[in-house]
Amino acid sequence: MWVSWVPTEYAGLPVFLETGIHTLRLEYYHYSNGEQHLYWTSPEMDKQIIPAGPLQPPTKANGPNPSNNAKDIKQAPLLKWAPGDKAASSQLYFGADEEAVKNADAASPEFKGSIELGAELFDPGTLEWNTTYYWRVDGVNDLDAGSPWAGIVWSFTTADFLVIDDFEDYDIGNKEIWWFWKDGLGYGPHGDEPAYPGNGTGSAVGDENTPTYMEESIIHGGSKSMPVYFDNSVAAISEVDLALGGIDLTQNGGTTLKLFFHGDIGNAADPLYVTLNGGLPVIHEDPAAAQTNKWAEWNIPLQAFVDKGVDVTNVNSIAVGIGNKTSLQPGGTGTMYYDDIGVHP
User: Fold this and answer.
1) Most exposed residue of 9, 73, 88, 110, measured as fewest CB within 10 angstroms of its CB?
2) What's the CATH code, domain 62-160?
3) In this structure, are residues 272 and 325 in contact, taking their beta carbons and an 8 Å threshold?
């Protein structure tokens, strides 16, 4: 429950755990002076608060991104994780064979190298479509007799469609979203990086009240979505655009651009639009779509862009916007959220 609520008890379904060390993760919403209590029970034990003894700092790598068993992951993901509490470095194993990854050592082809503490990131390159991959991160500390700590084998499956952006990789540390999705503010207000003057519209991408500058509660898939504040009172339109580098949207039978958006009933009823290569906009059929207070799926045939003169086999940029781009006139304000943009067969 990601809202304030009366005292309530939630319980998970029974789960069988093999003997050994396991990672437990609890996500919660904190409001005012609320409390939480964590219980467990088993056929041999009545419900009780989990005592301090069984809960220790994690010895194994945890918090994988992509999350374990994740689906529809883009074909060029960045793998991230949190190291175990005692690890001084990590050893990473990666491949498409689960048993090979599980049993691999430093002499195996699945071994991808050692990663220093604080640099928990691995780029596997461009992967095959619709394929399940496995990875394992071992914690290493030569000064501890318990080292190495073999990690759990995690997996994810790449999408069977072209992923434009799932918004999972943006974070602090030169991965802030405004470096990639250009808005009306530019780089200047966000720090001391080289100035980008902005695109001249009333948009502001990112939320400076969250640790990653991304929306982490209103999400369609994964753990993040893109928040965009719009102000059309002066600039008439608000858009953010992403460079794509001349990709072919029709590859592997792609015919339909799909994106998910979430508005708010308090938003101005300004129209939504999408452009490719800075061309003429494709406008959402609902003039009040910005007020949709839930995730909505928008499917746009690529032919709609072709009809506007766009070469969809050589696309250098995509922009999502709010306002009347074809007949500029002042509008209102609000916040939109976008997630899971891709091209489907």
Assistant:
1) 9
2) 2.60.40.10
3) no
